[in-house]
Amino acid sequence: MRPEPWILITVTILLAILFQTFSTAKSAYEADRIVNLPGQPAEISFRQYAGFITIDEKQHRALFYYFVEAETEPASKPLVLWLNGVVGFVGPGCSSIGAGAFCEHGPFKPSGDLLLINEYSWNKEANMLYLESPAGVGFSYSSNKSFYNSVTDEITARDNLAFLTKWFTKFPEYKNRDFFITGESYGGHYVPQLAQLVIESNMKFNLKGIAIGNPLLEFNTDFNSRAGFFWSHGLISDSTYEMFTSVCNYSQIRRQIQNGSLNHICSQVNRQVSGEVSQFINTYDVTLDVCLSTVFSQSKMLDKLQDREEIDVCVEDETAKYLNRKDVQEALHAQLVGVTGWTVCSRVVSYEMQNLEVPTIHILGSIAKSGIRVLVYSGDQDSVIPLIGTRMLVNGLAKELGLKTSVPYRVWLEGRQVGGWTQVYGDILSFATIRGASHEAPFSQPKRSLVLFNSFLAGKALPQP
C-alpha cells in the first residue's frame, strides 16, 4: 500500500527543514574553523576554531574565543571553559588565550616561527574553550570606547553568560555535554560569579564543577598571607616581618596604592619589604629565575632539577610576537579593533578596582550547596596569592557549610613523586596544592597540573602512595 501523496510531501518538507537547520548550524561554526595555524606541527588531527561572538548588537561589543577539541574521542569528552585574570597592579584584564592557551595548557607553545607541541595539554582530557574577557582584553572589543572606562565584575559575568548562550547556539552539540568552568588568579571572581549566574538563570548548561587556581577570594586574607609566605621562604627578615604584620600589612598597602593615597608609614614598610625581596625575584614564583637582561621579562631556559622538565620562561614574549603576526590573526579569524597591537594584558580596560574587595568565598559555598563540585588549588611557590590564605579560606568555608573531612590532609602523587597536598570536604569541596608550581601552575608544573585536572574532571581522588 502506497502512502498518500500529502504524507510524502509533508515528510519531504520536514526532511528539508531538518537538513537546512543542520546545515545552517554546521556552517555557523565551520566558518570559524581554523584550517592551519602558521608554524603548526603537521601531525595534528584535532579540530580548532576561533572567532568573535557578538554579545551586544547596539554597542557592537564582541568577545573573542579559541576552541580546541579533545585530541581523541571529542564526542565523549567534557567541555571546559578557561578564564584568566590578573591581580597585579595593572588590574584584572589579561588574556585567556595568550596566557592559558599559549603559555599554560593549550596544545601549542610558540617558539620563534614555530608552534611546539605541549605534551601536557589539557585537550588530552577535554574540549577546551578559551575566552578573552571582558571586552578590551586581547582581540575582544567594544566599538563604544566608553565601555572601557568602568568595567565591573557584574558586567563581566553578564557578558560571559551572554557569550556562553550564543556559543552554545553556534555549537549545539556541546550544550548537553558535561561542562566545567575553570580559571586562575582573578578567575577567583570570574569563575564563581559566572557559575552563580548559570545556576540562577536556569540555563540548560550541564554544569558539573568549577576549579580555580591561586584565586583571589577574600582581599584581606589573601593579600595579608603574603607576609608569612615571604618570611617562611627567607625573603624577608624577622624585623621586617614584624613591621609587615603589625605596622602596616599588605592589604593596607595594596588598598592605598589603588586609591593613590599611600601614607608615609605604609610607604616605608613597602620599601623595606621590596628592598629585601629585591627586584630580582619573580613574585609569581619565588623559586623561578628571571632574565639577566631585564627583571620584568622572563627570558631564558631553565632546567628544573626536580623533574628535569625544561621551562621556557620567555613563552609570554613569544606568544605576544606570534599573536601580533598578520598571518596568525588571519588564521584565527581575528582582527585588532581600536588598538594597535595584541597584548597579554589590556592597556585600554579601566577595571573598577573596588571589585577586588568583594569577597567571593561565600559564592563558592552557594555553588557547592547547589551540588556543583568545587576545586580550589594553589601553586605553592606563588607569593601573589599564597596558598596560606587560600587554604585558610577553604577550610573556614567547609566549617561554615558543616562539611566533614572525607580525605584528611595528605600528599598526592604524580608518578612516583609528590605532586602536592590535598584535603577533601564531603564529596563537593576540595583543596590541593601543586608542588613547585607558580601562580600560573600549568606553566611551571605542567605534568602535575594535568594529573590534578584529570582527577577533577573524573571526580576521582588524587593518586596516593
From TrEMBL:
Location(s) in or outside the cell: Secreted
One term of GO molecular function: serine-type carboxypeptidase activity
Pfam families according to UniProt: Peptidase_S10
Keyword DNA damage (UniProt): no
GO biological process, one term: proteolysis
Gene Ontology CC: extracellular region; vacuole
Keyword Transcription: no
Enzyme Commission designation: 3.4.16.-
Signal peptide: 1-27
UniProt keyword annotations, A-Z: Carboxypeptidase, Disulfide bond, Glycoprotein, Hydrolase, Protease, Secreted, Signal
PANTHER family reported for this sequence: CARBOXYPEPTIDASE, SERINE PROTEASE FAMILY S10 SERINE CARBOXYPEPTIDASE
Family recorded in the similarity comment: Belongs to the peptidase S10 family.
Protein purpose: Probable carboxypeptidase.
Annotated protein name in UniProt: Carboxypeptidase
Species in which this protein is naturally found: Dipteronia dyeriana
